[in-house]
Amino acid sequence: MDAVVTAGGRISGKFARRTGVTVKALIEVGGQPVIRTVVDALRGLPDIQKIFVVGPEELMRSAIGDSADEIIPEAPDGAANFIMGLERCQTEDGGRAIFAASDLPFLTTDSLRAYLALCSPEADFSYPILRKQQFLAAYPGGGALFVPMRGGWYTGGCVFLLNPQAILANREMIERVFASRKSPFKLASILGWSFVFRLLTFSADPDSCARRGSAVIGCECRAVSDSPPELAYDLDDLADYDYAVRRVELSNA
């Protein structure tokens, strides 16, 4: 099983000044760039064969050394980076690959292993979700985007188990989904405006969204409930960064 990590995201303003970098993957938490944390967590999985990092080549090499098998020069947008990474994955018919964001400061091999154990072997696209109370139990006071649905409030993770062949066969729709991944309501509009209404009335649930996604995208999508919170804590803004640094400092005290 291969893995893809996209690392092209940029930051600016106060966020960049505080961290001293403009590439999000190079933000240091716990004494090392956060992308190194992600790559090391993936490398700990015994089934991982090759790890592909998509990003600015020279900067990524200085951050991760030889931990990745290949650094792919980035494209102008995130969806293209995602597709380029999947195209490198060598999977047998029906095989799977892991996609991970590069800004997950608390990601571990154990959390990845726990997530993979929850994934269905029949799914082409496994999307990790967890309830608000589960996230906040792990990261009290931490920030995340929570969406109201039937049964509670949910947030999503940034590590996916994928069938590259199925994803690439539906490239155009997948690119639209990827570009909208940070906006639940943009995702809902792709799935159909009836889902916008269902979200607004709290009548949608993760499984029904996954079923609708399967029909629209053209591959089997599954929501992976109760996924490990480490997959959902990312560095979207300065507040996320400050929280992560404080948490690491307290754990090392």
Describe the structure.
The chain has 253 residues and is of the alpha/beta class. It contains 12 helices and 11 strands. It has a single domain, classed as Spore Coat Polysaccharide Biosynthesis Protein SpsA, Chain A (Alpha-Beta Complex), CATH 3.90.550.10. It has helices at residues 13-19, 34-43, 57-64, 78-88, 109-118, 132-138, 164-169, 171-179, 184-191, 193-200, 206-217, 238-252; strands at residues 2-6, 28-29, 32-33, 51-55, 70-73, 97-101, 125-131, 147-149, 152-156, 159-162, 221-224. Strands 1, 4, 5, 6, 7, 8, 9, 10 and 11 form a 9-stranded mixed beta sheet that branches. A two-stranded antiparallel ribbon has the order 2-3. A hairpin with a 2-residue loop joins strand 2 (28-29) and strand 3. It is globular, with a radius of gyration of 17 Å. The termini are far apart. The relative contact order is 0.17.
Which terms would index this structure?
two-stranded antiparallel sheet; alpha/beta; Spore Coat Polysaccharide Biosynthesis Protein SpsA, Chain A; 11 strands; globular; nine-stranded mixed sheet; 253 residues
Mean pLDDT: 88
How many structural domains?
Answer: 1
Quaternary organization: single chain
Just name the CATH architecture.
Alpha-Beta Complex
The H/E string reads EHEEHEHEHEHEHEEEHHHHHEH
What is the structural class?
A: alpha/beta
Task: Name the CATH superfamily classification.
Answer: Spore Coat Polysaccharide Biosynthesis Protein SpsA, Chain A
Q: How many individual helices?
A: 12
Which percent range describes the beta-strand content?
15-25%
- Poorly predicted regions: none
Q: Give the overall silhouette.
A: globular
Query: How many strand segments?
Result: 11
- Classify the fold: give the CATH topology: Spore Coat Polysaccharide Biosynthesis Protein SpsA, Chain A
Q: What's the CATH first level?
A: Alpha Beta
